[in-house]
Design a protein that fits this description.
The protein is of the alpha+beta class. It has helices at 2-17, 46-51, 81-87, 102-114, 139-152; strands at 71-74, 76-78, 92-99, 120-124, 129-136, 160-164. The protein has a domain at 69-164: Sporulation related repeat (Alpha-Beta Plaits, 2-Layer Sandwich).
């Protein structure tokens, strides 16, 4: 009887002392909380700011919060002949929406028309219908427009550039 009690105590201690080997689930969409940027900044004193030389201003596109602009190279075709004749020479397209169904892209186009945009629909080599609000011949103008849209319309902060291949 003592052996059974002793065995039960030993087994109980053995199981109680084991730690779980489970780890948190890893996802490509989550980030390490330790790697999060700081939310606050410490203002520099007047003596520090006077001692540092002023940085030279370079001509950068207008962007909010120093965010980068997502870009993607694709071959595209125009869904209407009128859009093709007006925008065929442009290589940079400001994209607000991407849809797998043409009807969804047309509905989104109508929504954007009501907000004052002049959207066109492009058909991408990937099969998606891209809703474009502006097109440009040079990258600087396109990036500037992306920054303007992000500042004026925060709901379209995921705006991106499509580069015609």
């Amino acid at each position: 009887m003592n052996r059974i009690i002793l065995a039960a105590i030993v087994l109980g201690l053995a199981f109680a002392s084991c730690k779980s080997k489970k780890e948190l689930a890893q996802s490509p969409y989550t980030t390490d909380p330790a790697a999060q940027p700081k939310v606050f900044t410490v203002p520099a004193s007047d003596t520090q700011t006077q001692a540092q030389p002023k940085p030279q201003v370079t001509q950068e596109p207008a962007q909010t919060n120093n965010e980068t602009v997502a870009m993607r190279k694709e071959q595209v075709s125009f869904t209407t002949q009128e859009d093709k004749s007006l925008n065929e020479s442009n290589n940079f397209f400001v994209i607000l929406g991407s849809f797998s169904q043409l009807n969804n892209a047309k509905n989104y186009r109508e929504t954007l028309l009501n907000k004052g945009f002049t959207p066109i629909i492009l058909h991408s080599e990937t099969g998606y219908y891209r809703v474009c609000v502006n097109s440009y011949q040079n990258e600087y103008d396109a990036r500037t427009r992306v920054g303007q849209i992000r500042q004026t319309y925060p709901e379209y902060s995921d705006v991106w550039l499509l580069i015609k291949d």
